[in-house]
Design brief:
The complex is a heterodimer of chains A (313) and B (294).
Chain A (H helix, E strand, L loop, with lengths): L1 H24 L8 H6 L5 H10 L6 H13 L13 H36 L4 H15 L2 H15 L15 H35 L2 H8 L4 H39 L4 H10 L3 H29 L6
Chain B lengths: L4 H5 L2 H5 L4 H11 L1 H18 L36 H36 L1 H16 L2 H10 L5 H27 L3 H8 L4 H37 L11 H8 L8 H27 L5
The chains are: A mainly alpha (313), B mainly alpha (294).
């Protein structure tokens, strides 16, 4: 199995190569000189020339790609045009906020989504099942930021229980840290929770029809034990897949959520960089986030084998 | 797959096959209330957007500084924003942008993705390389890719459509390719081959028709997510330009006034959520109707 993990790790290299080239090619997606676009409407000829040299845009395209790839391999993501700081430093400063946010959102959505999915499947056709399905479809249809504003309006502005926006690092104390993260994490978790509930329900329905479940109920085992130990265990594979796929959803949602709650994370970094056309920063974030996505999916693949010994590579 | 309750339902078409199409449609609509409700809401939103000037609206761009941030009332149903513009009028006009983006993105990404998917699925030599490329492109979260594309383009509805189509294409290619791979082993394709039918004709006459149902279902989901993504891009200031009211940028302008004028965000968001919900319900209904496996 160790050799297999290694083989899969190696297989991610071409994928990351494609990501790196695609992220670089974004600069040239529009016809015309990227330096002019990055410099903006009020730039002088000098500004444009400076940006062109800085980004190496004077070289032929294939040389640019080569330089870019060799830089990334060395872990050099370039420097921000706006602040002059290395992109890796900027990402390092902002990563913690986004990691906490997505982690809490993931915990909330798995913690709520899986149980309600199991219950809905167990009581298929009941009002509970219908309520879960309605929630699943509407959760998937709501714009994340809108939901965020509704929660802010209800819990922060009207009730005054939680802060409206802002972020406190964990060093500033546990309660300030948590209270500022509750609403953003809840906002971000809803789409994902809906997806997990739907997936768990569908997967459980497939398993609950099996003979061994009927046997388990027939010999009088407690429903909770049957549902969790017998059914959920076998229904968990598709749910684990969703955790891998869902990361892309969470990171996309985090960009928008951070903007609603003024959290200084990677999403805000990206949005600010887009407004300033700070391209090295945009490229750096895209590359790092996609890399994490590829790695998480690799871990999910490995988890498969641990969860279901029937799967052999 | 185990025999489940849904398989029992497939016995029904034999009974309905004899009925007229109108009677079958009526039967389907009454049996699937969520599909019917979704379709009704979607048609209503379509009517709202297309006939925007007829719905007792004013000028969506007219500013009345004296009437800024007014609460919803009998004259101003959804209140007014910080420039004194009528939020109801702007929301009604906003439906146009959302529906246009949703429709254009699903049609364009399906057209391009299907063409590429058919070719990649049938020519084995291209397959391995192209699928690695698709894996790479899909590893970049769609919203970040769309944002990065918008950073290189001017804000306009056309560019929003382009920025949303590009991340969607690899996903369509993947779906089409998977179907092509299973269909190409089908007996009818083998028979056609044996009779000397050329590859382009096989793709068009044998493979494409079998793809129509899953692609129609996919179109609804792509449309729904494109409408959400347009709102995200506009909300983040990288989408539809401010002089064209869209649900996303109305809410973006309202975000500074959450405490003073919550209605600027509440109403466009409600319309947006209802529209996307309606499209998703229609998609789920079509999936049942066309017997497409999710």
């Amino acid at each position: 199995m160790f050799a297999e993990i290694l083989r899969r790790l190696v297989a991610t290299i071409p994928v990351m190569g494609v990501v790196a080239i695609a992220v670089f090619a974004l600069l040239h997606v529009t016809p015309g000189d990227p330096a002019v676009i990055i410099a903006g409407d009020y730039a002088t000829t000098d500004d444009i020339a400076r940006i062109r040299t800085r980004l190496g845009l004077d070289e032929p395209f294939h040389v640019q790609v080569g330089l870019w790839l060799s830089r990334i391999v060395r872990g050099d993501l370039g420097t921000s045009i706006f602040s002059g700081l290395p992109v890796s430093t900027l990402i390092g400063q902002r990563a913690a906020t986004t990691i906490w946010l997505t982690l809490f959102a993931m915990l909330i959505s798995v913690g709520v989504g899986v149980p309600i999915g199991v219950l809905a499947a167990w009581r298929k056709g009941s009002w509970l099942d219908r309520a879960v399905m309605v929630f699943a479809v509407s959760g998937f249809s709501m714009p994340t930021f809108w939901l965020g504003f509704i929660l802010v309006y209800v819990f922060a502005i009207t009730a005054g229980w939680l802060p409206v926006q802002g972020y406190h690092p964990i060093a500033a104390g546990v309660w300030p840290f948590l209270s500022h993260l509750v609403l953003p994490a809840l906002t971000l978790s809803v789409v994902y929770m809906a997806l997990i509930a739907r997936m768990t329900r569908a997967s459980m329905l497939g398993v609950l029809d099996e003979d061994y479940i009927r046997t388990a109920f027939a010999k009088g085992l407690a429903p909770r034990g049957v549902l969790i130990r017998h059914a959920l265990k076998n229904a968990s594979l598709p749910v684990v897949t969703i955790i891998g796929i869902g990361f892309a959803l969470l990171i996309g949602g985090a960009v928008v959520t951070e903007s609603v709650f003024a959290l200084p994370g990677l999403g805000r970094l990206t949005v600010d960089a887009i407004v300033r056309r700070d391209y090295p920063v945009i490229q750096g974030v895209l590359l790092v986030v996609s890399g994490v996505y590829v790695l998480i999916n690799l871990v999910v693949d490995v988890l498969y084998v641990i969860l279901d010994p029937r799967i052999r590579y | 797959m185990a025999v489940s309750a849904t398989n029992v339902g497939t016995l029904a078409p034999d009974a309905t096959a004899a009925r007229s199409p109108a009677a079958r449609a009526r039967r389907f609509l009454t049996r699937h209330p969520t599909f019917t409700a979704g379709l009704a809401v979607l048609l209503l939103v379509l009517a709202v957007g297309v006939l925007a000037p007829l719905w007792w609206t004013g000028d969506p761009l007219q500013m009345k500084p004296a009437q800024r941030l007014q609460q919803p009332s009998a004259e101003r149903w959804f209140g007014s924003d910080h420039f004194g513009r009528d939020v109801y009028t702007r929301t009604v006009y906003g439906a146009r942008v959302s529906l246009l983006v949703g429709a254009a993105v699903s049609v364009l990404s399906l057209a391009l993705g299907t063409t590429l998917g058919l070719v990649i699925g049938f020519y084995r030599r291209l397959d391995t390389v192209m699928m690695r490329v698709m894996d790479g492109l899909m590893a970049i979260p769609a919203i970040l890719l769309a944002l990065a594309l918008m950073a290189m383009m001017r804000g306009s509805v056309r560019n929003v459509i382009i920025a949303l189509v590009i991340p969607e294409i690899p996903r369509v290619i993947r779906l089409v390719r998977a179907s092509v791979l299973s269909l190409r082993e089908h007996t009818m394709v083998e028979a056609a081959r044996a009779l000397g039918v050329g590859t382009p004709r096989i793709l068009l006459r044998y493979i494409l028709p079998a793809l129509v149902a899953p692609l129609i279902v996919q179109a609804t989901y792509i449309g729904a997510s494109a409408i959400l993504f347009e709102a995200y891009l506009s909300f983040l200031g990288a989408g539809t330009p401010p002089h064209i009211p869209s649900w996303g940028n109305i809410m973006a302008e309202g975000k500074t006034y959450v405490q003073l004028a919550f209605w600027i965000i509440l109403f466009p968001g409600l319309f947006l959520a209802l529209t996307v919900l309606a499209i998703n319900l229609v998609g789920d209904g079509l999936r049942d109707l066309l017997n497409v496996r999710g």
